[in-house]
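Annex B. Sample input.
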Amino acid sequence: GWAVYADGYSAPALGSYIGANSLYWNDYYDVYSNYGGTIYARGNWWGDYPAYPSIYGNVDYSGELNFDPNNWAGVMTRPVGVAGKPPTYISDSGAGILDGDTTGIGELNAAYRSLHNNDSLGAFSAFRNLLERHPDRFVGSRAIVTAFSLAGRLRINGRQLLDDAISRHAGTRLSGTAKLLLVGLLLKGDHGESGQALGLSTSLINNPDSTIAKHALFNAGNIAWYRLKNETLGKNYFLRLIARFPGDPLSESALATMGGETSPGAGPKKNAADLEAKAFTLRECYPNPFNPSTQINYELPEATHVSLIVYDILGRKVAELVNGYQEAGPRTATWLAHDVASGVYLARFTATVPNGILKLSKMMKLVLAK
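Annex B, continued. Sample output.
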């Protein structure tokens, strides 16, 4: 019932820079984070725009897309967008995930619109042109990521695409990105070429492009830690990553992999009970089905702005049960449904702490049976 479930000892990154994943229509949660860190899921599609993902824990889903970049899979999805305006993959202003590098953004959006319109071959050609013309720009780096993902579907040699970019544009941002993609290709399967992948990663850790360097350090740490079973070597790369990029999403993921250690010999890992004690928790409503009232129970580990709103199945607001700051502790909200008809309703719960970070967002199904 989950798209992604992360326990206390895992640290998935679903788009710390660009995600372009599709996570929606799950039975329970889209992303469930059962540990104290942040799951970074930026630049993804969540089934609606603006996005209202069903998440638990601290999940950063900023930079969400307004269409499904993976519509080639043929999954039915809800239509979104503004009438008369074509979908835009990335803000033309360069806001958010681009860090202001706007050169070629219009062309990149045009390529994504071709993909959105099921012209995979035309989109691939457009991405190839972009990476050749902008090897040191964001758009070139992003173009090879998408072109590589399209290659397999079009039965084009993806390895050759990467090798060409590395040899033809040596020393550029494009070449570094291609090498990062090649690392993933080398690790494919349980018996991938881990040694070669580690060597390629370490060749990039001093890259002048900080994005490439930090991903290379992160990859090197994970290859050593998980593939080569050398935690000492893996920790060395992770600590270098944390020292150079403190607070970065990949640094937080590395920290979580090491169980919270910031230096060799640090204290013990947090256990599941410690993490659960600090969790924002929304419990099932009771009774359900109900007539005419039901109670929704939740727990707040800290002072939080809580919103609990009931909608009908057409998305119309039916009742606002909570909308304001509440102190830490167990809470109960009661819905008295005297004036509405029998049927299925959806209650959306969100908890946002004072610094603006969304801690929990979840949709709950309520059945009123009069």
